[in-house]
Amino acid sequence: MNFEEIKKSGEIIIYSPLKGEVKSLEDIPDLFFTSHIIGDGCAINPVNGVIHAPVSSKVKIFKTNHLLLFEPEKGVHVVIHFGIGTSHLKGKGFTRLLKEEGREVNAGDEIISCDLNYINNKARSTITPIIVNNENISRLELLAEYGKIVESGAPLMKIYLK
After folding, report:
1. Molecular function terms in GO for this entry (predicted)?
2. How many CB atoms lie within 10 A of CB 141?
């Protein structure tokens, strides 16, 4: 979906950035995410370690490579936080596949590669929250089913803009 189609429809599809089991935010072992303080969404318990862009937009990658921020529409932010306790790894176990931060990416582009074995041994969890801020969102709809495996690039959520 291109930018013009988003504006006309008032909806944005968020595609799964990882292959893995779809989980509720309540399944994340971290109160910051279960409290929905930064927004709503779901989580993926990954079976592989390649993070793909969930939407077409510019991307901001934090220096530890575990946190990515997308803004497909002004004021709408999609946050991917790979794992729990991964900020303490200081980037170890993560490899940037996208060398130019801040550039426009297409949904499905490979952004980060993660060493699941290393991260499983060094962090609390690899469960990955995908959060959408709710500042400019009227509603979020889950398109995948909790407990089921979703493929990278499959529709995961739909957000309806205010």
Report:
1. kinase activity
2. 11
Q: Residue 53 corresponds to which tokens in the numbers above?
A: 């862009």
25 alpha-carbon distance from chain centroid: 12
Question: How far apart are alpha carbons 59 and 134 in whole angstroms?
Answer: 19
**Comparing 6-10, 42-46, 74-78, 80-84, which segment has the lowest mean pLDDT?**
6-10
- Give pLDDT tens digits for 45-71: 999 999 999 999 999 999 999 999 999
Show which residues are catalytic: 81
Q: CATH no. for residue 97? A: 2.70.70.10
Which of 108, 89, 107, 110 has its CA nearest to residue 99?
Answer: 110
> What is residue 37's three-state secondary structure?
coil
Tokens representing 47? 């079976």
- Residue given tokens 């709809």 in the structure block: 141
Contact between 52 and 111 (Cβ < 8 Å): yes
Q: Which of 152, 92, 148, 138 is nearest to 118 (CA)?
A: 92
**Domain of residue 17, residue span:** 3-161
**Amino acid identity, position 99:** K
Give how many domains the chain has, as a whole number: 1
Question: Residue length, the chain?
Answer: 162
In one-letter notation, the amino acid at residue 86 is T
